[in-house]
Amino acid sequence: MTKVKKLIAAIKKQWLAERTRCQSCGMPLIYDKKYRAGSIYCSYCHDGESFAQDMSLADMRRKVNSLLQSRKAPLITRMYMHMRLATLRRWRRGGVGKRAG
C-alpha cells in the first residue's frame, strides 16, 4: 500500500470515529462492545432509557480527562476532548441530560 493510500485510509477511519462519537462522553462508538444500533450514546453513558449518571459538563470533563490521563494520552488529545465535549448533543445549549451547575 502506498503512503497516500495509507494516509487516506487513516483519514477515513478518523472521520468515521469523529462522526460516530457518543454524544455524551465523546468515545468513538466503534469501540463500544455493547453498542445498541441506532443509539447516539455509548453503553457506559446511557442504558437505552436514561443516562447512567446525572452529571454536569464539568463533571464529564473531569471524568474524561482522568480516563485519558490514566491511559497516558498526550496533552493535545486531552485538550481536544476538553473542547470537543461541549459540542456533543448532551451538552449543547438546550441539550438533554443537563444538570444545573
Can you put this structure into words, describing what you see?
- With 101 residues, this protein is mainly alpha-helical.
- Helix content is 42%, strand content 0%.
- The protein is built from 3 helices and no strands.
- The N and C termini lie far apart (51 Å).
Secondary-structure-derived class? mainly alpha
Separate helix tally: 3
Q: List the uncertain runs.
A: none
Strand content: under 5%
> What is the percent of helical residues?
40-55%
> How would you describe the shape?
globular
Biggest beta sheet summary: none
User: What is the CA–CA distance across the termini?
Assistant: 51 Å
Mean pLDDT, to the nearest integer, reads 87
Q: How many beta-strand elements?
A: 0
Count of domain modules: 1
Rg from C-alpha positions? Answer: 15 Å
Short description:
By secondary structure, the chain is an all-alpha fold. It has helices at residues 3-19, 57-70, 75-85. The protein is built from three helices and no strands.
Keywords summarizing the entry:
0% strand; 101 residues; mainly alpha; single chain; globular
